[in-house]
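Supplementary notes for students who missed Thursday's class. We covered one full example, reproduced here. Read the sequence, then the structure, then the short commentary at the end.
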Amino acid sequence: MPIVLATAYLPPVAYIAACLKNDEIFIEAYESYIKQTCRNRCMIYGPNGIQSLIIPVKKPEGNHAGISGILTDNSRPWQKLHWRSIETAYNKSPFFLYYRDYFEPYFTQETEHLIDFNSRILEQILLILRIERVIGLTWEYEKEVENDQRDLLVNKHRDFSFPAYFQPFSPKHGFLSDLSIIDLLFNTGPEAREYLEKISF
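Structure (token representation):
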């Protein structure tokens, strides 16, 4: 069944589980941009606990711009800073060295459109997890669609169960669930897909 999702930066675990459980993936390309969501931010597990990485954006069309018109603000070295934070958070994770070369290039090359950047990383994540899906963009905005998961990025709408797995800083801060998929990948490696299959909606 096709699923419609909002674009997301290094999406949370539940988002990728939703991709796994559906045959076709469509990214909403015509919604209005919504601030303070996973559209331009992700959550990782740093030495001090949960850490938010936020892509600075520009809105050439104003505050009511559609998501496809949102640009990354490259006047600030956000990519360099984000990668440095990812290294600090995961350099002691069991599979960081194994996967780092898949992700580092996205933080060394300038990008322009947020939705394109997110989509390229999503394709890479699905490839690593051997989730063979074609990712398409919606043709127009529809208020109601079948299998609408565009609100999957809003915490209050989630009702999932996330089994604990190893995280380097869990002895200090405890297990943190549904972080960016890179947390799961860097800490569980090849077992990440099996973990995703256990998540029920």
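Commentary. Strands lie at 2-5, 24-27, 41-46, 49-54, 57-58, 71-72, 135-137. The chain has one domain: 2-198. If anything here is unclear, bring it to office hours.
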